[in-house]
Amino acid sequence: MEIRWETQAGTDYSGSALILCVFEGDGPVAGPLQGFEEWTASGEISGKTGECTLIHRPAGFKAARVLLAGGGKREQFGPPAMRKLAGTAVRFLKAKGISKAALVLEQALSTSDYASAAAEGALLGNYEGDRLKTDKSASKFMDEFAILGSGEDVEAGVTRGRILGEAQNWARELANEPPNLMTPTVLAERAGEMAAQYGLGCEIFDEAKMRELGMGALLGVALGSAEPPRFIILRYVPESGHASKSTVHLGLVGKGVTFDTGGISIKPAENMDKMKYDMCGSTAVLGAMRAIAQLKPGIPVTALVPTVENMPGSRSQRPGDIVKTLSGKTVEVLNTDAEGRLILADALTYAQRIGCTHLVDAATLTGACVVALGSVNTGTFASDDAFFGQWQAASTAEGEKMWRMPLDDEYKELLKSPFADLHNIGGRYGGAITAALFLKEFADPLPWIHLDIAGTAYIEENKSFMAKGPTALPLRSFVRLATLISG
Length: 487
Ligand code: BES
Ligand code: MN
Ligand code: ZN
Description:
Number of strands: 20
Helix content: 25-40%
Low-confidence stretches: none
Strand content: 15-25%
Mean pLDDT: 96
Bound molecules: ligand BES, manganese (II) ion, zinc ion
Radius of gyration: 24 Å
Shape: elongated
Number of helices: 13
Distance between the termini: 32 Å
């Protein structure tokens, strides 16, 4: 879909559909509802969030249709709500076969942040995960979306929104690929192609290189699969013109398990297909790098993605195996289904070796996190309050909800093994916390944030503003954090 910025007045737009934002409690007198009094009085148009009213041949407009899109209460409206409104409008219109539309940013909403959110929301709403359907008769997409706004920074906002929206859809497409087509080798290839296209540095480690380095935890998980593992490193370095005085080097680490059967500690069959999404941490990190390469923050950012397939087989690692991590610490693998923390351990150590000063990881790590927080908030663990403050500012601005969870030392008792330095599971209770504390062993002493996205990385049903499947979360917050730290 092409996203454009235009300054013409809404009434002059002559395409197939013009989208106007309407709000709860707004009088029709001065706002976009002028002329629609009959329906506001009857309560048919209330301005509630998600409400869509399509009017044909509207008087006073050149457009063939006006879509009145509800934004809820004005006091609660902000760029995150605009993102959803634009997505809802696009999905509503494209379902009717309408392929061109424009959204009006009224004076008060004519800012860079609103323009960015509107562009992004439109792109996100337009995405469907139906690439492999050969019958395209039911697949409908919007081709052109214009944002009409006269504010000074609107154009820059539209550009930023386009970059972010396209990066998220790129990440969603990778995560949606079926596990027979999206193997660690393929993920590494796709990351490499993207890096070449956007001018990022790229290094891919194969098994031999991992063995030479001593990434025993990552290699252990990979043993059961015929598909070889990869370790992907992408580097963004600011040009001297962009570089900030800050000495921060941000490391973004993403879990890239292309399919998680559980290994020898095999998972039940029900819903196992969803474990193709066990690579969503990695796609969010890679997608963030795609946007960062274009938005050019002032600090260096390195992506580190360990990617494997977790399979049972005659060569698999067994419960009871002891592996030596890159850090030198030994781990007794009591449950081969707790594989994410094993591959992330080596990635976190490697991030330290290459000089990262701040680390953030994203991983579909535990079912326990889904039990604790459901699909609304991402479980967020932080070893440093100041860094968490920056993360909170970044994620709040992007409308990606985060909830801080505890990391008390007392829970560490649960990770003690009689045979090795640690074991890889923590017992029945507090599973998201013990998983996080396991990772902390490898992230310390750096300021580090761990995001357990098991409940938020993908949605099980369509939403009005987004198709079911991967959400790309927390890609936007990653990008915002990089910009925010640059100062
Ligand atoms: N990938 C899963 C976690 C997961 C579960 C993600 C549900 C998305 C939805 C992870 O590798 C896993 O299997 N975790 C185990 C850990 C346990 C063995 C300590 C879990 O949560 O059951
Ligand atoms: Mn698992
Ligand atoms: Zn997993």
